[in-house]
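INPUT
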Amino acid sequence: MVRLNTAALALIDSAPLAHLVTLNQDGSPQVSIIWLGRDGDDLVSGHVDPGQLKMRNMARDPRVTLSMESPTANQYGFREYLVVHAQVKLTDGGAAELLHTLAQTYIGPGTEFPLMPDPPPGQVAHYRITKITGMGDWSDPTG
Amino acid sequence: MVRLNTAALALIDSAPLAHLVTLNQDGSPQVSIIWLGRDGDDLVSGHVDPGQLKMRNMARDPRVTLSMESPTANQYGFREYLVVHAQVKLTDGGAAELLHTLAQTYIGPGTEFPLMPDPPPGQVAHYRITKITGMGDWSDPTG
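OUTPUT
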């Protein structure tokens, strides 16, 4: 198991937009921006519509990446960024509750979310981290 | 050919960080953040080291995506973003000149770049756009 270090956890807790890469049936990449939370050593995201392309992709091929920009730049002026490589597993239910929790940091305290009277159970994606790359203090997960 | 509309071109000209997705030999996704420029209807990036993983990946499989965050949010509080799907072609030489030009907007006017006395010719990646997705006015390229 690969664990995120303190710097990487701080970045994720700051509610960064995560560029989720999934693989289409023909092997080409697909990208969606999502909100990310934590569940123990895994990362998690909530999705009310299991029919979306990214959800069908993740159900077929669990190899995904999540990339996030850091607000800080290194000494050369390059913005740092975190890339999490993961194996994803989808579970049924809990999407609305997770999205509501994440909306409190991603949009703001007191946000009502999802904006539907009776949200479907949806799915939660659980990301088991396999490798950490990018540019920053997190590139060495022992650091 | 797919063309970027005015809103998408404005986003690219604002020097956004581009999350470049390439495909590893085993089909899994690889992500690096790069600077993007324009060359006619194509997008371009400069790379001084053709030995990097992303360069070897692009030489083997031309299917890539470039995703960029927009500074604006929609009415639900979601940040807009642009995803460019492309076929990439690498050409030899010109990397340092392109990177120097891009550094003027990505870091700032007067930036010396690359920071090496005699930079190698490197490679330029030319992205021929095949599809536009994401969330924003650009999702409909005729708009």
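end of record. The first strand of chain B starts at residue 18 and ends at 23.
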